[in-house]
Automatic annotation (TrEMBL):
Database matches in InterPro entries: Papain-like_cys_pep_sf, Peptidase_C1A_C
Residue stretches making up the Peptidase C1A papain C-terminal domain: 7-62
Domain of life the protein comes from: Eukaryota
Annotated GO MF terms: cysteine-type peptidase activity
Name this polypeptide is given: Peptidase C1A papain C-terminal domain-containing protein
GO BP terms in the entry: proteolysis
Amino acid sequence: MVEYQLGEDKMLSEIYARGPIACTTAVTSAFEQYTGGVFNDTTGAKSLDHEVSIAGWGVTSGGV
């Protein structure tokens, strides 16, 4: 059985404990124009249409 958990803290805990996790995301037109750096979508899109693997986390030199 697969257990789904929501929230950034739970995601980070899972990555730390067991490695990469699978997540879904909505790919908006803003995301399609993404060229690098930290992406922060503000459209509020709810249509989850892509799956990604998250293997780690961190902070940029700018504190983001």
